[in-house]
Amino acid sequence: MNSYMPRISLLQESQLGAHSPHSVLISLLRGGAAIEVAAAHLRSESFPGLRSLDDPSTWYLALAFCTGFAHQAVVVFFLISGWLVGGSLMNKLARPDAFKLYAIDRITRLWTVLLPTFLLMLAIGIVSGALDPRMADFSPENPYSVSVFAANLLGLQTFVVPQFGGNYPLWSLANETWYYVLFPLLLMCAGARRWQRRAWAGAGVTAIALLLPLPALLYFSIWLLGAGFSRVRIDCGRATRAALLVALAGISVYFRLTGQNDDQTITSYPQDLLISLFFLLLLSASIGTIDPSSSATARVKRIATFLSNFSFTLYVVHVPLIGLLRSAGSAWLGIARLNPSRLPDLAAYMGMLVFVLAFAYGFYRMFESRTGAVRRALKALLVKRQPAPQGAA
Q: How many CB atoms neighbour CB 164 within 10 A?
């Protein structure tokens, strides 16, 4: 094939297999994005804001730049979620109990991490003095209350109640939760055989659209792009893939320096849409097979899988851990903020980041790694087994 003439084709099924360059890339980016978010929040909680400094040191300028891509990292999460979750559901639509199995997969994905994390946050709140264990509170204004705990499990944080325990990254999980609900409802609207089912699905979409703020609905379109591109294959040469990678890196840096890098808003949507398109084009251009005999490829794949496996746990647990570290530093060392001019404080920052990563990995091994077993148990309990076809072994 002429490497200068890319060919675009639509696939019958989303390409979700592990033996493809795009799958390794997804794992690397998912793990790297979680580390980026954790590093960014640790810097902002540990050091003074860069804009408050008159003459920041060179190393701190470099640290601030490198940890300034948390906004884009969340966009990557939405895109990968759409690609994997949406693509997987589309592949399984014709199977019996597809939506019931999908619901079990989504709930176990969230709750096997959120439930133990919320319990950990309660323990940290008691240790730090932010929470009195002798008083049960049901107030929706108290971030540690029973009602806020339950509402956060249902994805109502930021829309109805605050994030549980002040864990502010949970805002994106509220978006994700409702994207998980909206997508199958849209599929039902488009493909359900009975008009009653389409009507109920349409009513559900309307109700959720009224609940969600406009920015959350806008960013659902980015999630949908991920799902749609999971069925797009671009056959091209290395030069085209390299050009896409350079373009993606270039516009990411450009918007890091000049764009809207705080919350996902109407203002930030155009820049994030552009980044999303280049990101998805790169993924679709990376569909293929990897050489299983290559030791370098196998090494990269192991690293990517390792980072990806505990990325979700890291995302939801890092802010409570940062709060615990700050509380300990203030109580034991009398240090509220690190000094951005002292190299030993950079070493302290790196040590705290390593602690957060190591704790998150251990927490993943205890809970998130058991998600598959929990799913299998629930499916065996809640889903009727289909009889095997006659003549099947």
A: 23
Burial of 38 (0-12, 13-18, 19+ CB in 10 A): buried
Cβ pair 137, 144 in contact under 8 A: yes
Mean pLDDT rounded to a whole number for the chain: 90
Cα distances (angstroms) measured from residue 177 to each of 8, 140, 300, 327: 32, 20, 31, 31
Look-up: residue for tokens 């360059």? 21
User: How far is C-alpha 243 from the chain's CA centre?
Assistant: 26
- Considering only CA atoms, give the Rg of the chain: 22
The pLDDT tens digits for 247-279 are: 999 999 999 999 998 889 999 999 999 999 999
Query: If we measure between CA atoms, which residue out of 272, 277, 250 comes closest to residue 261?
Result: 272
User: CA 28, CA 25: separation in Å to the nearest integer?
Assistant: 5
Residue 183 is which amino acid? F
User: What are the residues whose beta carbons fall under 8 Å from the beta carbon of 275, sequence distance 6 or more?
Assistant: 72, 75, 248, 251, 252, 255
DSSP annotation of 8: E
Kind and range of the H or E run holding 104: helix 98-128
- Residue showing tokens 């559900």: 204
Cβ–Cβ under 8 Å, residues 353 and 44 = no
3-state secondary structure of 9: strand
**pLDDT for 298:** 83
Task: Please tell me the total number of residues recorded for the chain in this structure.
Answer: 393
Q: If residue 192 lies in a helix (H) or strand (E), which one and from where to where?
A: none
3-state helix, strand, coil in the chain (%, to 5): 70, 5, 30
Which residues touch 238 (CB under 8 Å, ≥6 apart)? 3
Both structure tokens of 118? 């919320």
273 vs 292, residue with greater confidence: 273
Confidence of residue 296 (pLDDT cuts 50, 70, 90): confident
State pLDDT tens for residues 337-388: 899 999 999 999 999 999 999 999 999 999 999 999 999 999 999 987 655 4
Q: Within the chain, how many helices (H) and strands (E) appear?
A: 15, 2
Residue closest to 88 by CA, chosen among 60, 109, 71, 73: 109
Distance CA 227, CA 8 (A): 16
